[in-house]
Design goal:
heterotrimer; A alpha+beta (661); B alpha/beta (628); C mainly beta (66); B: 628 residues; alpha/beta; Glutaredoxin; Rossmann fold; 5 domains; 5-stranded mixed β-sheet; 24 helices; C: 66 residues; mainly beta; Ubiquitin-like (UB roll); 5 strands; 11% helix; globular
Chain lengths: 661, 628, 66
């Protein structure tokens, strides 16, 4: 720590700290103009110039970017400091006499009338004072690079490429927000929102958080969702070998630091939609393909995202370049990486269990980790030939097929075939989170976590211990999360970068400040004030309609909300043993049993019974909370509350299924 | 082509020397940009043709060299082995030259140098005073070798320094120590000890395990400066060899040369030299068979003076706009691509190989001061200057540090032409200052001129006679800087505009009493507040002219008068009625037809039409035109 | 000699700090708020805050899902 002394205050700081930061920490005020905490110090306006002394040496430096490496005394009020600032402000006042921020600073510095006439005198109150904040936030903050300086010396000005309004500009208004003189005007959006300024303001809050907080939080702008690999691995949630296990020593090989260092292009905003200020998509450029029809070509690969990486670990494959190649071909063939990976994980377990063999796979050896064979299956799947054609049927159909054709144990296949409602599970191990089991099992379209992601709330934070707590979460979060889909918005800016104080609010998992932000967006767009409860209601209406529609199509009941046991507990003794201490402990604490007196098979069975029973109890609680019958059908009362009863044929449909009230 | 190795360099040099010596005479035609623009290349072509026609090409070799230095007297040809100096050559001189000098063995006197009209010819270059007082190190090969032939460079000693280091296994630390003991300080204007720079870079590179870069600053933006241009045009291998040695010292594998685009001949010669060096195994993967990897890339500037500033230069090479950044973090630790970087000037690099070949003590013994304890103790070695302006012998000179201004201007420069008086010497370019006649005995080195309010800078020396207005000189430099300022920081961008406005008013007779204090105030803020050296030193010309020529400023402000007769708004051209004999020589040349008069009668200038261009003053043979 | 961490028992030892606890539990997720006996302890103090026997620690992970 190094000492920094001001006129009447002292403070110790880490080496490399700037004088402005040291002053802030010490409670000393140094005037700045072109400095902003969201950006690297620029040192252009020079208003923060201060005289300093380091030992014998005295000189004037800019406080915003001068790094402390030796004990230093800062003279914020010396003659040299004051004179430098005064003359600089005199120069600026001569050029921009009506700009308020200059007038104020000039007054404080003791400048009266400038003693010379500036040939480029600009009378506007909103003149651009060339501070560069807009250029820097566009470049460093958003990586859009739409604004830059043009010209040298007196001709310097801020412009967009070719002096035209750039098509690359997303209208994020970070520049207008940061401009100290109001020199930037935003042009209204062509779909005529009711209150564009309100929308921009809500967006600016998010932009600021992205710039200041993302690199301390999820690194979304830097590595995207890939940052979850190492986290899930640490919390025993990364699927390995068809969800048998939750971590693996080789997971490190496909964790995000590798991709950041070696593969992902940095500093380029890749947004799914024009205007997203998170822009978390990552790509690998110049990747040489090793297999398949495009072998030998150098391509750009969009990804890998967490799910693709988690899918790879689910197959027991930990080779980053294999994942990139698999990602490319899935994209090119139009095959979902999750469905492919989870289906392959099932296939691999079947292979290791003897349900499949080389004869049945057309010669391919497919134990866990069989990377070459796995990608061969992918190519076959796309061509519609060979074993790939079989895997392309998906887990639900493969279970049936293997049971029939190979006389496999259907119950075993049901236990390990990770699909719900026909959709392959996404890549999280849900064994220890009952709430998430419900999240997957009850979800309308199948085992996807778009609706609920409650693992941390449930398993780690232990915030939802009772069935009622879980049911409440399984009401609020699916309603809130599906609201995004209804509005064509991505939910990641809602939850992946959170306000600094989110840990201190009442219900941090809801990220209430951001929910309010979305209310502002809706109000700004429609002109209608909404509260969070209104947004939930919007979702509830659609969600219940969808459930009833499922019912109409022959699904939508309790019997369809089933999950494979692998997602709720250890199917095999091998799995039980991998977490024996935990499971034994649970037998004791939750069921009052004595694990020491039980055989392994007994313990597996007892655990299973307990968990399956708890899942059913969860369904009871969730259905009740949602206003559904015990069979999982929305009641007529619920339909009425949501105004759905007005739909033609709806009440008749419910009645046909025994729901009359 | 042969691959040069540690073992065969001497043999290659000897072979080249043998070939060279086989000729009866070598005709060294100066092909530096100055002489080229005077037609030296077409002279060379006619010369070669004549030699071929007379079938003398096995006896006479014509070599187009880099700048000879005596630019005011070009086109130049020096004939070896005697060293006979021919000047002001034209194509029509060729037949006479060949016939008389080479066929009949009688050198052509009327093409030789004379100190003044009517004096006798001085045939030998070494006897000409302009050359006699010079000592060349950086310019050791100027006018002596073909810059487009690597064999010729090797013949004259190129790559001997490198060979010595490789053959004797001199390690990086020892090499750095050698450079430190020589006392050499940067010749680009900063004067920072080169050895310390290399040492710091090497340390940073080892600590962070990051490969360093070596960079050559050939931007040379100072108006009137052409030292670096001439070095690259004359002896590009000197720069290449210097950079290889620097790379050895700091562990660099890539070198970059930044040359301003306005130097096409230098660029052409450098590209060719680099190509040849690669072919001959002196750049690439295996230098001289030693296994050392090093190669050089050339970047062209794009017309910005500010890109001579090291951080702006590096930004430019990285593809960003040429804007400087704060130097609180040094480029020697975080420079090009954020790696440790040694940036040195062309002249510095060119001076390195002889230090390695001849030793630190040899270099340290030249110059002034005592560098035995530290390079800061003196100014060792020589310095190249471009001597321009109102001086007889404009050209390129290299002199030992510590020589006085008087010796440069009078002994080498031949004094002020046209019988005028010396008024001031401007040195150090736009960052430097003007010194009056009273300061002429000051020693030229890194430290002495600074105390007097000027600086040696990169070597531009502009001599000004008594028709120069010092206020206008200050205004000229400010005007130059105003256009060249990158505009990033307020004090430089707006300060230069403000100072320019004040100085312009003064030269137009609209100066105010408070203006001098205002100039000092603005200057102080610019000096303390500017981001980079451009702004920080921008007011130096103003401050130094204020210091030594204050009465001139006061005359403009208080009396509305320009004592030198230069500021157009304050002068009138009139014809003296007693002296004018009505010859009419001034009438036709006047661009605005402002002069009227009958033959043999006193002519008169219409003040409304007169634009004070001074053409009539030059045209009049009777001294009848007055400037007041 | 135990503390509660998110409702679960964890072996306590003399001198155990919050930072060490987080490390040992492999709570690597970057967004966490830590409460000890209901009081929030800011991150800069995690290295020097020593836990007492019987403390109730809440390590709230602010993770709302992928």
């Amino acid at each position: 720590m190094i000492e920094v002394s001001f006129e009447d205050k002292k403070i110790e700081v880490e080496p490399g700290t700037t004088l402005v930061d040291a002053a802030k920490a010490a409670g000393v005020y140094i005037t700045t103009l072109c400095h902003n905490e969201q950006l690297e110090p620029y040192g252009a306006c020079r208003i923060c110039s201060v005289e300093i002394a380091e030992g014998e040496r005295r000189r004037v430096v800019t406080a915003c970017n001068y790094p402390v490496h030796k004990p230093v005394t800062v003279f914020t009020k010396s003659e040299r400091t004051l004179r430098t600032r005064r003359v600089i402000l005199e120069m600026m006042l001569a050029r921009w006499p009506k700009v308020k921020v200059i007038q104020n600073m000039a007054k404080l510095a003791g400048v009266e009338e400038p003693r010379f006439a500036h040939p480029d005198r600009n009378e506007s109150e909103n003149a651009c004072i060339l501070c560069g904040l807009c250029v820097r936030i566009c470049k460093e903050g958003l990586w859009h690079n739409v604004l830059a300086f043009e010209g040298r010396g007196p001709t310097r000005k801020v412009t967009q490429p070719f002096g035209e309004i750039s098509p690359e500009c997303t209208g994020c208004s970070a520049c207008a927000d940061i401009c100290p003189t109001g020199a930037i005007t935003m042009v209204d959006d062509p779909n005529h929102p009711a209150d564009p300024a309100r929308i921009r303001k809500a967006g600016q809050v998010v932009t600021r958080e992205m710039i200041l907080l993302d690199h301390q939080q999820a690194l979304m702008r830097i590595v995207g969702t890939a940052h979850l690999v190492e986290i899930m691995n640490d919390y025993d949630l990364l699927p390995v070998n068809n969800y048998k296990f939750g971590d693996h020593p080789d997971a490190e090989k496909i964790s995000s630091p590798h991709f950041r260092k070696k593969y992902f292009t940095q500093g380029v905003p890749d947004a799914c939609y024009l205007g997203c200020n998170m822009a978390c998509t990552k790509a690998v450029e110049g990747f040489e393909l090793k297999t398949g029809p495009d072998q030998g070509k150098f391509v750009v690969v969009d990804g890998p995202e967490y799910e693709t990486l988690g899918g790879s670990s689910n197959m027991g494959i930990f080779d980053p370049e294999w994942v990139i190649e698999m990602n490319y071909y899935c994209d090119t063939y139009g095959i979902d990486t999750i469905s492919y990976a989870t289906a392959m994980a099932f296939v691999m377990e079947c292979y290791e269990a003897g349900v499949l063999n080389q004869e049945r796979t057309g010669g391919l050896e497919l134990p866990f980790g069989a990377a070459d064979a796995a990608i061969e299956v992918l190519h076959q799947m796309a061509e519609g030939e060979g074993f790939g054609l079989t895997v392309g049927l998906g887990i639900r159909r493969m279970k049936k097929l293997f049971a029939e054709k190979y006389d496999a144990d259907a119950a075993f296949l049901q236990d390990i075939g990770m699909e719900a409602k026909g959709l392959e599970y996404s890549e999280y191990v849900t064994k220890e989170s009952l709430a998430q089991q419900g999240g997957y099992g009850i979800a309308l379209k199948g085992a996807q976590h778009d609706e609920a992601w409650l693992i941390f709330m449930d398993m780690v934070n232990k915030q939802i211990p009772s069935f009622e707590d879980k049911a409440e979460a399984l009401h609020y979060f699916p309603m809130w999360r599906t609201w995004f889909g209804l509005n064509g918005l991505c939910k990641l800016p809602w939850n992946d970068v959170e306000p600094e104080d989110n840990g201190e609010v009442d219900e941090p998992a809801k990220v209430p400040k951001h929910v309010d932000g979305y209310c502002n967006l809706v109000a700004g767009m429609t002109g209608k004030e909404v509260k969070p409860a209104d947004l939930i209601l919007q979702s509830e209406r659609v969600y219940n309609f969808q459930r009833i529609f499922n019912l109409k199509m022959g699904f939508g009941k309790r019997e369809h909300d089933v999950i494979p046991y692998r997602s709720a507990g250890p199917v095999t003794e091998e799995e039980y043993q991998s977490r024996a201490e935990r499971y034994d402990g649970q037998l004791k604490e939750e069921q009052g049993l004595d694990p020491a007196a039980m055989s392994l098979a007994e313990k597996v069975a007892a655990t299973r019974q307990w968990r399956e029973d708890r899942y059913q109890k969860l369904l009871d609680a969730v259905y009740k909370r949602r206003g559904w019958t015990a069979d999982g059908i929305p009641t007529l009362a619920t339909a009425k509350r949501l105004g759905l009863d007005q739909m033609e044929g709806l009440t008749e449909l419910l009645a046909a299924h025994g729901v009359k009230e | 082509m042969p691959k040069v190795t540690i073992e065969n360099l001497s043999a290659i040099a000897a072979e080249a020397q043998e070939k060279h010596a086989a000729y009866k005479s070598i005709l060294l035609v100066c092909a530096g940009t100055g002489c080229v623009s005077s037609g030296s290349l077409s002279f060379r072509d006619v010369l070669q043709k004549e030699i071929d026609n007379r079938e003398l090409s096995s006896e006479l070799k014509v070599v187009a060299t880099g700048c000879n230095g005596f630019c005011a007297h070009g086109p130049i040809c020096v004939v070896q082995p005697e060293g006979i100096f021919y000047q002001h050559l034209k194509a029509r001189h060729v037949p006479e030259l060949i016939e008389q000098h080479f066929v009949q063995g009688k050198p052509v006197e009327h093409l030789m140098y004379r100190a003044a009209k009517g004096e006798r010819a001085i045939p030998l270059e070494k006897d000409i005073q302009f050359f006699a007082k010079q000592q060349t190190i950086a310019l050791r090969n100027r006018g002596r070798l073909d810059p487009e032939d690597i064999a010729d460079a090797i013949r004259r000693g190129a790559y001997q320094g490198l060979q010595k280091v490789l053959a004797e296994g001199i390690k990086a630390e020892a090499l750095i120590d050698l450079i430190l003991r020589s006392g050499i300080r940067g010749r680009g204007g900063g004067g920072f000890p080169t050895g310390i720079k290399w040492q710091t870079c090497r340390q940073a590179s080892l600590e962070r395990k990051e490969t360093a870069y070596v960079v050559c600053n050939g931007d040379e933006g100072d108006p009137g400066a052409f030292m670096d241009r001439s070095i690259v045009e004359a002896d590009p291998h000197a720069v290449i060899e210097g950079m290889i040695l620097g790379a050895l010292a700091v562990g660099a594998q890539e070198g970059l040369v930044y040359i301003r685009k306005e130097y096409p001949l230098a660029l052409q010669r450098l590209y060719k030299a680099i190509d040849q060096a690669r072919e001959w195994g002196l750049l690439g993967d295996d230098l001289m068979g030693s296994g050392m990897k090093f190669d050089i890339q050339v970047h062209q500037g794009a017309g910005a003076f500010v890109c001579g500033e090291s951080t702006a230069l590096m930004a430019s090479m990285e593809g960003r706009a040429g804007e400087p950044r704060a130097k609180y973090v040094h480029t020697v630790e975080y420079g090009f691509r954020n790696a440790p970087t040694v940036l040195n000037n062309v002249e510095t690099w060119a001076s390195i190989p002889p230090i390695v070949s001849k030793g630190a003590e040899w270099f340290a013994a030249i110059g002034v001061g005592d560098v035995s304890q530290s390079p800061w103790g003196g100014s060792s070695g020589t310095k190249v200057f471009s001597l321009v302006g109102n001086v007889c012998n404009t050209g390129l000179v290299e002199v030992p540090m510590g020589i006085s201004l008087r010796e440069i201007v009078y002994d080498i420069g031949g004094g002020i032409p046209n019988g005028r008086k010396l008024k001031a010497i401007q040195s150090g370019g736009p960052s430097g200052g003007c010194l009056p006649e009273s300061q002429l005995d000051l020693a030229v080195d890194f430290d002495t001129l600074q105390e007097a309010g000027s600086m040696m800078g990169s070597g531009g020396l502009i001599v000004m006679d008594d028709r120069t207005c010092m206020v206008d000189v200050a205004r000229y430099f400010i005007s130059f800087l105003m256009d060249e300022s990158c505009g990033k920081c307020t004090p430089c961008r707006e300060g230069l505009v403000a100072v320019h406005e004040v100085l312009t008013r003064i030269t137009e007779g609209k100066g105010r009493r408070e203006d001098l204090d205002l100039l000092e105030d603005l200057g102080a803020a610019m000096k303390e507040g500017s981001l980079c050296g451009l702004g920080q030193s921008a007011v130096n010309p103003v401050l130094s002219t204020l210091r030594y020529f204050r009465e001139e400023y006061e005359a403009h402000i208080n009396d509305g008068r320009c004592p030198a007769g230069a500021c157009k708004a304050l002068i009138r051209y009139t014809i003296d009625t007693e002296t004018c004999n009505g010859c009419g020589a001034c009438v036709k040349p006047c661009p605005t037809a402002a002069i009227t008069g009958k033959l043999k009668q006193v002519h008169i200038i219409d003040q409304e039409a007169c634009i004070q261009c001074g053409t009539c003053l030059d045209a009049c043979n009777f001294d009848a035109v007055r400037v007041e | 000699m135990a503390i509660l961490v998110n409702g679960e028992s964890y072996a306590w030892r003399q001198g155990l700090t919050i930072a060490q606890l987080i490390d040992e539990k492999k709570f690597s997720f970057p967004l966490k708020t830590v409460f000890v006996n209901g009081k929030r302890i800011p991150k800069p103090e995690h290295k020097k805050t020593i836990l007492a026997d019987g403390d109730e620690v809440q390590v709230l992970h602010l993770m709302s899902g992928g």
